[in-house]
């Protein structure tokens, strides 16, 4: 059995302001996220990881570096950038608030938050959700080839792409949004079929946002 631990990055300024923050938008982690990374580090120290990857987007990489710096095991472990774990691209809507988009484009906003591909979304440069799902799934399967049975992989990524990717890997289409600095664990015995061992785990955090903090449901 191989296990993949998928961590959503810490909460950022744009998360707090309910702004769309995708592959081409970014904002700094909140000061409170630093404590969350410390809490996450204590949790991750309970496990052994054969490889560690991160989305190259700054908020994910900073979360990875900050978290691992507080661990006892992984302070000097290499962190490999992987484009497959980048967030979904929100095109022209990067940096806009939920309210702005919902007011201007109510129908498209509904399609977006329910992850329905719509040709009209493409006109705004928004990545197709089906393509994003395939990208993340392919990245997971590719990285699994580098580890042996019984080993674990750790990935720092983003809310929307992780949710979509885990749906694609497991076939579970009922998964809800992921909290910042949460961990989801999927497992496989053949690198092709996946089960969820944990989803949106955040009990290790001292302060958990019960309302979540993702721009999409």
Q: How is this structure best described in words?
A:
The protein is an alpha/beta fold. The protein is 35% helix and 15% strand. It is built from eight helices and six strands. The protein has a six-stranded mixed β-sheet with strand order 3-2-4-1-5-6. Strand 2 (51-54), helix 3 and strand 3 (80-81) form a beta-alpha-beta unit. Helix 2 (31-44) crosses helix 3 (58-69), helix 4 crosses helix 5 (106-113) and helix 7 (129-144) crosses helix 8 (159-170). The chain is globular. The mean pLDDT is 95.
The main sheet comes to: 6 strands, mixed
Strand order of the main beta sheet, please?
3-2-4-1-5-6
> What's the average pLDDT?
95
Measured by DSSP, the beta-strand proportion falls in 5-15%
- Helix segment count? 8
Q: What is the 3D form? A: globular
From the N-terminal CA to the C-terminal CA, the straight-line distance is: 31 Å
Radius of gyration, whole Å: 16 Å
List the secondary-structure elements in sequence, H or E.
EHHEHEHHHHEHEE
Structural class: alpha/beta
Number of strands: 6
User: Which regions contain 5 or more consecutive residues with pLDDT less than 50?
Assistant: none
* Share in helix: 25-40%
Key words describing this protein structure:
217 residues; alpha/beta; 8 helices
Strands, helices and their partners?
Layout: E1 2-8, H1 13-16, H2 31-44, E2 51-54, H3 58-69, E3 80-81, H4 98-104, H5 106-113, H6 119-122, H7 129-144, E4 152-157, H8 159-170, E5 183-188, E6 195-201
Helix pairs in contact: 2-3, 4-5, 7-8
